């Protein structure tokens, strides 16, 4: 017996009824991605911390650096924020200001994204083998988080590539080995998160509920300005800038090639 004939299409100008079984549109597809490509020539913007913040940062630099185990090789030139190449008499770090975002589902690995500005496509996207909830907890409890990422020099490369061009690093958080960190290209989820946060310069929170994963939990984020300091082709550092007047958690990310 032949089956029932297919339903005719709706007349022009009439909208078909929504299928109750079809999923609702994701937050990633609410509007198109309008992020700009990273600029090839980076502009050097000087950060302008207030007098209170400058005093706090100067006092912080006088504190001893957290001890690093033998397996983590961070050159002293990278750790010293008062070196002549990165600081002046006022003790400030002078580097290129960039926007950094930490985000990820609570039980999934955390992702670090760096942009020229909040409205551009990330020029560096890094996935670290640490659950997002654990990393955020470390920042909230200890207040001072040091992420050291190191890799070996490749003789075949001729020593011309920058350290940020590497794809894989051994990762340490506050001197504790956590496995590996990998650079990757942005996915649809990454671009969707950057688009949702394009109007946010600083802040932290949870993204809309329809971006929650049933297994990995809510999608959380933290965004701030960072000072990017280039020590050499084998070492770069990103220093998180605290909001003016807020002595909250501070994050430093060291990229080292040995």
Structure description:
- With 258 residues, the protein is an alpha+beta fold.
- It contains four helices and ten strands.
- The chain has helices at residues 51-61, 76-79, 132-142, 188-196; strands at 96-105, 109-115, 124-131, 144-151, 168-173, 176-183, 203-206, 219-232, 235-240, 250-257.
- It has a nine-stranded mixed β-barrel with strand order 1-2-3-6-5-4-10-9-8.
- The longest helix has 11 residues, at 51-61.
- The chain starts with 50 loop residues before the first helix and ends with a strand.
Give the structure's gist in a few sentences.
The chain contains 4 helices and 10 strands. With 258 residues, the chain is of the alpha+beta class.
Features:
alpha+beta; 10 strands; 9-stranded mixed barrel; 258 residues
